[in-house]
Amino acid sequence: MKEKIAFTVTRYGKDINGGAELHCRMLAERLTDTFDVEVLTTCIKNYVTGAQGYKEGVEIINGVTVRRFRTEPEKLGTEKEWLAKVRLQRRIRRLLYWCGCLKYVAKAFPVWKWRLGADIHAFKSSIFYSPEMHEWLKTRKHEYKAIISMTATYAPFFAAADAAGEKMIGIPTLHPERAAFRPALTLSFTKAAFIGYNTGEEQKLAENIFGKNNIRGSIISTGIDSIQEADWHTVKEKFSLPEKYVVFIGRIEKGKTGKLVNYYTKYCKKYPDAPKLVMVGGIICDIGKHENTFYTGFVSDEEKRSILRHALMLINPSKYESLSLVVLEALRDKVPVLVNGKCNVLKEHGIRSKNAILTYSSYREFRDNFKKISEDADTREYMKHAGESYFLENYSWDTIMPRLRKAIESISGISENDLYEKEQ
Fold first, then answer.
1. How much is the pTM?
2. 268-292 tens-digit pLDDT
3. Taking the CB of residue 266, how many other CB atoms lie within 10 A of it?
4. 142, 221, 243, 342 - which has most CB atoms within 10 Å?
5. CB-based contacts of 378: which residues, under 8 Å, 6+ apart?
6. What b/e sequence results for 209-221 when a residue is b if at least 16 CB atoms lie within 10 Å of its CB, and e otherwise?
């Protein structure tokens, strides 16, 4: 009989295409040959409105048992109201981080107790908080060999650490954003038995925020699924795609698109014959538009791969990434990549890949590297082959899954007493 493990994540399903959710699904499905795998998740489908588009209960998806729990945020106050009560604490912690002092504070005081209770209420007041999931973890944790929890800044991660920290492998997908400095995360990171990072930059970030000696972990990362691409001519006609284009793939919101549209508009004024910009993904908010910009809306995975493979380059303008699955997909498919150099994780990809990925930190760098990739065939050829090599050496499943299995086995001997000692 197979031993049982669980994942916790905000949303889960074949029609959910968020980065952390896809990350969870790929890992969960690849562990079914060794373990009885469950996913504990919410009924929420729309992460903006919190609409519960799935039925409560159990279903099987590709060999994984998915348990959906109804969300019910606390009514003592809204998440926004509770977060306002810890705004000062977040700012102080962030300031200490930027001046290089927070890691020393964390060494002396692993758990930040000033206004900790208010931040816990903020987690319990969020749209993703499920008291039933929290209670399930607390009362059923003995049934699982390990509980793998995704995304540190959301309620299921907090619930897993609070209820079953001694069994928890956290995959935090951490960014240097304001939410990373919440007091309650000091509790989650010090309670977790193991933290699995996506990159060295993410590990460095966590150790500088929570203290190197307070958390145990290493890089696990993830690979990507190989999906058959849809017929190109059908896709091109369906979305009225231009002959020559660059592509953005992801949620279309200001946090993800950054200054891309502004920079692209400025570029087109200087170079009217610039390749068109195709933006693939659901439109969350208005980010502006240029006449050379094409929006596809939501597309299937097969259509997405076809659009990506025929692009001159992929652009990822986000400042906050813990890995970027779409960058890995581009590298696999020999598509040159241009990324925001203000994101340390993406910048690290560029350095480690020996410039298979180019970066920009200003409009001038965007202009120069956009022009270089789109007009210089030799540059594109170098980036294609160097990118593929970087991907195969670092992100194949043959490399990733042994790391995760080793992490699962490593926490078996950790008891609640061991965890208590770690917190002191």
1. 0.86
2. 999 999 999 999 987 755 656 667 8
3. 15
4. 221
5. none
6. bbbeebbebeebb
